[in-house]
Design brief:
Chain lengths: ~100, ~575
Amino acid sequence: MAGKGGESVLSDQEDYQSLLSDLVKKQMVMLGPQVAISKARTVAGLTVGQDGQVTAISGDPHSALEQLASEYMKLSGQIANTTLQSLLEQYPAIKSRGLQQA
Amino acid sequence: MDPTISLALVMIIGTIAGILGYFFERQRFNEELSRRKQREEELARRAYETIILKEIGDRIGYSLNGAKIIEIISGSLGQLLPYSTVSYIIANEQEEKIIFSCTVAETVSPVFVEHVKVIMLAALSEMTQKQFRKSDLDESIQGVILDEGSAELVGSYFNLPIVISGKLGGIINVASNQKNLYSEKNTEVLYRIARQASEAVSKLHEVLENEKARLSQAVQSLSDGLIMVDTRYRLVLANRKVADLLGTIANPSLFDIANALSGTLDLRSHVEEALKSEGETPSSEIVVHDKVLQVAVLRVLDKRTNEPMGAIVLFHDITDAKSLEQLRRDFSAMMVHELRSPLTSIRSTVELLKDDFAKLKEEDLVKYLTSVDVTSQAMLELINDLLDVAKLEAGKFDVICETGPIADSITERTESFKPQIEEKGLRLTVEIEKGLPSGYFDKIRIKQVLNNLLSNAIKYTQTGEIKVKVAKDTSDGQTSDILISVSDTGIGIEADQIDSLFSKFGQLKAGRNKAGLKSSGLGLYIAKGIVEAWGGKIWVRSEGQGLGSTFYFTVPIAESDNKEEASSISGKIYPSEKIAHA
């Protein structure tokens, strides 16, 4: 579908992609690149590059974000949650939807 | 088909099938071998996890040292993973420095170690949202000698954050000069161990925090001021009462406290003396902002090492005790004076009578003897009051309660005071409500109460009226007690003196004796003891100085009358006679 609705979906997807990329990159600094990327790659529907950039999301991006947050929380607990919360400040539309794990 | 060809074909097919079968079997064998290897690796990881968690449990015990977890995990990695260095960072907020420790297992370059530092500082900064520099590190490097000639950087690494009660306790870094060595799979067990150990310590931490909160609450609610300082004379805690007693700001610093004590107590010297002293140090008495404080300094020992951990300074407010002590002294002095004055008067009169007996006229003799009689009577009353107070305080003051009409006792007492009242030019009004129920009281002791109230009313009233009123006291429309009131139009009582009037030293505190009227001042204290012994109440109301006063007391209704009143006093049952101790 073209038009405004289509643009909105696209923008939403870009936001998620950007947020997920930021999250992976921050975790790369915190946990180390290999562990952070391999964890991200266990999340179904995410395509993650070697630099931590999320290049594609198939399926529900919000669910992917929740899964990724959950995976990182298994590794660094509250620290991962704090990082995610600080990142969410830059994405108020996504924050407003709430996260189960956060 | 040629049989030879057929045979050859069968042989070829058989050979191929045999070869394929061999490869299939080999494949199956390899797969089985791989599965077994995976199972063994998984088993080894589980065994490692169990061993490490047990070691953490054994070594940490009930302590809350997150640093120990970090040391144990980083010291046991060789069992699980290949690595060149294992390092940890522990952020010590109290000491304002970061401990960096690096154990070199394989020869690496100094550049490699520097690279590890950069990686760990970046992780620490990201996790804490604070910026750290290499100069913040208090570092130690141990293990294999570094290769100064190499410039090899870190090939692969991972960080293991240790989180205690939601806060970062430290980071473990495992680094290797080989590339792509660590994955989510082979590090999983370490993250699991770190999480379980962190959870265990966090729970202990939570228990300790709860205990600390409870202790802190108890310390805060102490009626004494309390501060604790450590061996380096740093303030550990100060409760709210300290600020009240010393007149400092809320949550004072040690400087504020020392400043408030300046000129009265050298706190530092007292603390140092207590820390050195094996026994108890003597307490001191100081005066701060008109309060007398007793100050005790006690050292606190570490239970395990028996070494001093610090000192507790306790500020106990003894202002009231000191005032009471002064009141006791004043009271004793007053009683001695009250007894010596009439004795001196009696002695002078008797000496006069002895020397001039023959010369004195009969009317003079009667006058002098009456004076001796009145004075000795006053002395006797005073001594009786003192004896009654002694009995009250010893719980041996008998009040014999029985059922009877109260009106008779009131009438008899007011009649006996009538001449004195009229002699002073005062008017007496007695109002006794008709149909009063029987009361439950001590018929002798009620006279003592009335004597006190009536004599006080006469004593403190120069003009006007004394009014005695007896009526049913109703509550919720039902009679609960008989209410007796004695009102006067005398000097009245100030509001701030009312509370202390019924205490032992009440008259002395209230200064009513300063009116130049002789009295032990114990009457109201004794009256209160009597009234309360039969289950009544006694109180006073006054609009202020010069506006008169009204004293009230109650007598409970006797049981038989009470029943007629349809259970007006629930739960109160009075026997026909009872000895109560005031």
